[in-house]
Amino acid sequence: MRVTSIQMEIKDRHKEENLEAALNLLDQAPSSDLVLLPELWPCGYFSFHRYREDSEPIDGPTVSALREKASAMGTHILMGSLVLREDDDLFNAALLLGPAGGIMAQYRKIHLFGYQSEERKLLTAGKKPTVVDLPWGKAGITTCYDLRFPELYRLMVDQGVSIFLVPSAWPLARLDSWRLFNRARAHENLSYLFSCNCAGTSDGKTFAGHSMIVDPSGEVLAEGGEDACYVSADIDQQRVQDVRKEFSALNDRVF
Q1: Looking at residue 115, what is its pLDDT?
Q2: What percent of the chain has pLDDT over 90?
């Protein structure tokens, strides 16, 4: 299995321009079985004034265009997240698209950020974790701030997850925490973790980049810098079973 995170440069521009940029980046991405985009790339995470204006229903133009692209590429795409509109509610929703262009899973961000952020004021929190069957094992989808809540990841491991997918808009000011949590969530759960963070800026706030591919022992297989880039690695899913058999920490838990 080959996985690629597209560490997209976020710019304060129209949603349609960001969509065109994302489609071009997908066209240029290394051939992969799974491709990830970051959190709220259509409008930029910190552009809170755009959330409602740029929101879309699940059959809106952004999701429709990415579904067509997944089908054309014949690959799985975690299309990062967008502001999803359902009736009067807005959600930070990450969608996993299959190689035939179908929507395989939807995750609505559970932990909404409140510190120097309006996300919690503007959006409705999700209620449950999302676990989906992939050809390489069960995957759990989380988003950005979720990384600070290890109980969510352990809950998904108990549902059979061996891969975590994490679109994010993590700021540069907390880069050290980002790198720590990526490795910790993978290592403590003896699982792969694939993260895709933003580069660039949104409403004057700079993103950290450093998208990561981490193996079940906490080893970083690939990591981006602060600028836009592709982060790719070849994954051996048998590695999860081997690590869990050799070091049985998940079986040694005491409640």
Answers
A1: 86
A2: 98
Averaged pLDDT for residues 65-79: 98
Catalytic site residue from 39, 43, 69, 198: 39
Catalytic residue among 43, 144, 198, 229: 144
pLDDT tens by residue, 83-136:
999 999 999 999 999 999 999 999 999 999 988 899 999 999 999 999 999 999
Q: How far apart are CA 211 and CA 218, in angstroms?
A: 14
| Class of residue 179 by CB neighbours under 10 A (exposed 0-12, middle 13-18, buried 19+) | middle
Residue 246: active-site member = no
Active site residue 144: yes
How many angstroms separate the CA atoms of 233 and 226, rounded?
18
Query: Of the residues 15, 109, 198, 205, which is catalytic?
Result: 109
Q: Does the annotation mark 11 as catalytic?
A: no
Q: Would you identify the CATH topology of the domain 2-250?
A: Nitrilase/N-carbamoyl-D-aminoacid amidohydrolase (3.60.110)
